[in-house]
Design brief:
Elements (H helix, E strand, L loop, with lengths): L6 E4 L2 E4 L1 H19 L4 H8 L3 H8 L7 H10 L14
Antiparallel strand pairs: 1-2
Length: 90
């Protein structure tokens, strides 16, 4: 079994691999929009027909969302575009 290391050391500090950084940024964006909407993870999950643990995993950067999940989340958060959840992701 092969282990893939996704962290790179740069000048003594830890730099996230771009894939991990994108996952974490998506999670931060999701949490920020959810809190602005005044929704708990459970209420957002209900609005999007997702499980609350899915919301938690996404917010913590532990899982990548599928495209249809991004669209569901944007609708549940009443965002003008799903791209708002992708802000800051290169």
């Amino acid at each position: 079994m092969q282990t893939i290391i996704r962290r790179q050391t740069v000048y003594g500090s830890v730099k996230l691999h771009p894939v991990d950084a994108a996952r974490e940024q998506f999670g931060l964006n999701l949490r920020r929009h959810r809190e602005r909407a005044g929704l708990s993870q459970e209420r957002l999950a209900d609005a999007c027909e997702l499980d609350r643990t899915e919301i938690s995993l996404l917010e913590r950067g532990k899982r990548f969302p599928r495209l249809d999940t991004v669209v569901r989340l944007a609708r549940g958060l009443e965002l003008s575009s799903p791209s708002e959840l992708l802000e800051g992701i290169v």
